[in-house]
Structures are given as C-alpha cells and as structure tokens.
Write a structure and sequence with these properties.
By secondary structure, the chain is of the alpha/beta class. It folds into three domains: 270 residues, Spore Coat Polysaccharide Biosynthesis Protein SpsA, Chain A (Alpha-Beta Complex), CATH 3.90.550.10; 75 residues, no CATH class; 105 residues, Jelly Rolls (Sandwich). It has eleven helices and 30 strands. It has a six-stranded antiparallel beta sheet, with no helix packed on it. The protein has a five-stranded mixed barrel with strand order 6-9-7-8-12. Helix 3 packs across helix 6, helix 3 packs across helix 7 and helix 6 packs across helix 7. The longest helix is centred in the first third of the chain and has 16 residues. The two termini are 47 Å apart. The relative contact order is 0.11.
C-alpha cells in the first residue's frame, strides 16, 4: 500500500430512530449501545492502527464538541483535529471540507470516510478491505465499501458491481447504484450475487474528490473553500466559518458525487456490519436468550419472546410480551412492535410538533465541565444534581431571575460569590443570591457532586450572563 490512510469520522447525525436514548443534544453515536464504549469510540478504536492509519480527523456538530473531545480523551486517542459544523449540511459538504483540509497538507492524501455510528464486528476484515480500497484509490478510483448481503434487505440501497479493476484484486467498477428495492427485487439481488449493500463508507484520494465535486457541485466546493478559508481555532477545535458553510447545498455524498462520477469503484466485504438504524437492528445483533430476547439493564421477563427490552434506570418487568421493543430511560418509556421500529421517527416528529422537550434533551445534560441532571421540577423551584470533573470550573456568571442553594454531597467545591471565594466540603452548603456574580470550581482530584436548589420566577437555562468562561462560551 503506497500511503497510510487518513480516517475522517463524520459525527453530525441525530439518530431519531433510536429515541428515547438518542436525542438531539446527545445522539446515538455518543451512546454505549453495543458495548461499554460509545459507537463513536468504537469507530475511533477501529482506526487506531498506526501502521495503516494516520490520526483521525473528526467532523461534528459544534453543539457536541466537548462530548466528542472527552470521549476521545477517555480512550487515549489524540485526533488530527475536530472540525465543527456550525449547521448540519449532510455528508457531501462535510466530506468536501475534510478533503480540502487534507489535500492542503498532502496532495496525495487518501481519506477514509466513516460514519461514527456503525457497528463492525470484525476489525481485521475491515482493515483488509481498507488495504484493497486504498490500492484502488491510489490508482484513481473513488471507492465505496459494499457489504455482502446475507438476507433480502429492503431497508438499504444496493450497489451492482461491474468488471474488476485492473491490478487490484477484490475491487470492481460500480455498474449501478440501486435505490431501496421491494422484497421481490431484494431476493433477486441476493440470489444473483452481484449486488452489495451500500454501507456509506468510502475511501477517496482527497484531491480527486475535490476535482470531481468541482465538476458536479461547483457551488458546494466554492462555499466549502470559503468556510475553510475562514477557519478559526477555538481551544482544541477548528471552527468553520458559519455563513459560507450554511450556504452550501445540503446533499449526501452519494447523491452529490458517487451516483454521478465515472470513477466509482466498490470493494465487497463481509465485516459483521450494521448501521444501527433502528431498535430492531440492535435486536438483530444483540446476544439473545433461549427465548430470543435481548435484555439490557435491570429487566425481568416472564413468558416473553423475541423482544428487545432495555432499562437505563429502574426495574422493567414484562409478562407475556412478544416481538416488542421496550426502552425505559429516566423520563420516557417507549413500547413499539419490532416490525414497526422505523416508526419511532414519526413519534419523535409528533412530540416535536407538540413542543415537547424530550426529543432534544435528556434529563442529564452534559457540559465541558461535567454534567447536571434535573431531579425535580416544581412550581418556582427546581432541584438538580451537579457533577464537576476534577480540575474543572463553571463560568463566572450571574442570574437575573433565580437564586441558588448549593449543598455539597461529596468532594470539595471552591465557590466564588460576589467578592468572596471560599471552600465547601461534604455536608456544607451556601446561598447564591440573584444578581450576584458567582462561580463553582472543583480544585480536587475526585469528582465534585452537589445538589442545587433553584428558586425564582424563571428557571430556564437561558437566564445566564457569562462574564468569564474557559470554554469560550461568553
């Protein structure tokens, strides 16, 4: 293989079909759905092979930047960079931006484009497929990975392979991209042996991507060039210029490039791949008991069959259920037949139309300094649990409409309240009046946990004036 590969991990999706665990503020790629690691962490680990890959470049929603950075820190992966999208514009602009950044440093760069929310069971076979794809890309191909189908799936697009690429065993020209077929057509594809599922993973020469997108999407490339030209370093992040990126056409890389180019090639592979597109997909790949149930968390079943039951908090007890999905979080219980798992998105849309907050937010909200979780929401008062990481601090801030009471449960808090700064330890408390500048810090080496009781006429998170913030949120 002539060059090491630059992984580009795309982390901009919202994963509404995996609600209520996946939400806008904390989507599915950031969740530990299959193992103890999040899907994003599993993706990063998959390309942590230094003989084959360079450090990965991440492209993510700016609202998730601190969570992405923290999850990479937890698994000791130092990224090449974390590029922040000011708005979501689908995969083609994200790929274009990454290609521009990589080609500027290395005109011969090969870029591996990976969604952050896929499961691949066999990393060794994945690496083998990357080597074949890299050989094809080095010869001027835009390569997609085709998953060898094991069933007549109607939920995926397909790729029909053509003749083999010269001097690259295992790579083929793309004869045709096929939209999601009906069941009869899918059975024909499976029997014919020339069709593969379109995985949404790609390996491109960065310069060639730019050239081909210039042919088919010149406006998009122009906007992305302007967004990269206006790139600003923000702490450890690379922030794209908002206005030009927002003006880029919103298109998938399949639609913008792969279905139009004559350079498309496919590497068929069997990887144990799953795009985790619904709760039924997690049942498909989950470890089942003798009755065909997949159970996660504190769950007790009686006479249940072929169901996926998951609890993130309390006991879930189910009797006589069959072919169901049951998901219990801190604030939501979802019950849906397995065969209708795709309809979860419609439920999310209905909740949004009713101005519910559950599609967007978990009770636990993550911040760069730690997280807070609403314990009780009452009339003119609210109770929260706050956890501050060792060495972290909240912004110096003030509220116009609420006062706060802080009670330390464990750890040590350094509190700034007006002109005073003092320490609080376990079982100690303090009061923060309205209109008073204040700050909470954790000077210790263990997590700080405290209970915050807010009281006042308005308790929304937008009642905050920041005077100083180490995370650039002033």
């Amino acid at each position: 293989m002539p060059h090491k590969i630059h992984p580009v991990v795309l982390s901009g999706g919202s994963g509404t079909r995996l609600w209520p665990m996946s939400r806008e503020a904390y989507p599915k790629q950031l969740l530990p759905l299959v193992s103890e690691l999040s899907l994003l962490q599993e993706t990063a680990r998959r390309v942590a092979e230094p003989t084959l890959f360079h450090a990965p470049l991440f492209v993510c929603n700016e609202e998730h930047r601190f969570i992405v950075a923290e999850q990479l820190r937890q698994i000791d992966i130092a990224p090449r960079g974390i590029v922040l999208e000011p708005v979501g514009r689908n995969t083609a602009p994200a790929v274009c931006v990454a290609a521009l950044l990589l080609a500027a440093d290395d005109p011969e760069a090969l870029m591996l484009v990976l969604p952050s929310d896929h499961v691949i069971a066999d990393a060794r076979l994945f690496h083998d497929a990357c080597r074949v794809a890299a050989a094809a890309a080095a010869r001027g191909a835009l390569v997609t990975f085709g998953i060898t189908p094991d069933r007549p799936e109607t939920g995926y697009g397909y790729i029909r392979r053509g003749e083999g690429l010269a001097n690259v065993e295992g790579a083929y020209r793309v004869a045709e991209f096929v939209e999601k077929p009906n069941a009869a057509t899918a059975r024909q594809f499976l029997a014919g042996g020339k069709h593969a599922w379109n995985s949404g993973m790609f390996l491109f020469p960065a310069s060639l991507v730019i050239d081909e997108m210039e042919r088919f999407e010149p406006e998009m490339v122009s906007r992305c060039r302007d967004a990269v030209a206006g790139l600003a370093k923000d702490l450890d992040f690379l922030r794209l210029a908002r206005d030009p990126f927002a003006a880029a056409p919103s298109k998938s890389i399949d639609y913008a490039l792969m279905e139009k180019t004559d350079r498309a090639a496919v590497v068929p592979a069997e990887l144990g791949w799953n795009d985790v597109g619904s709760w039924s997909a997690l049942w498909d790949i989950g470890k089942k008991d003798d009755a065909g149930n997949v159970v996660m968390g504190d769950v007790t079943l009686l006479d249940a069959t072929n169901s996926y039951v998951r609890s993130e908090d309390r006991l879930v007890a189910a009797i006589g259920i069959k072919d169901l999905i049951v998901i219990a979080t801190d604030d939501v219980v979802l019950v849906v037949p397995r065969e209708r798992a795709q309809d979860v998105k419609a439920m999310v849309d209905k909740l949004r139309a009713g101005n519910r907050t559950e599609p967007a937010f978990h009770p636990r909200v993550y911040r760069p300094w730690g997280y807070y979780q609403t314990v009780h929401d009452g009339d003119r008062f609210q109770v929260k649990r706050i956890t501050v990481k060792p060495g972290a601090q909240l912004s110096l801030q003030m509220h116009h409409h609420r006062a706060e009471h802080w009670i330390v449960v464990n750890g040590t808090a350094r509190v700034t309240c007006g002109e005073k700064t003092f320490l609080l330890t376990e079982n100690e408390s303090t009061y923060i009046p309205m209109f008073t500048k204040h700050r909470l810090e954790n000077p210790g080496k263990v997590a700080l946990n405290l209970i915050e009781v807010q009281s006042g006429g308005y308790l929304g998170e937008d009642d905050i004036v920041r005077f100083d913030d180490q995370y650039g949120r002033n």
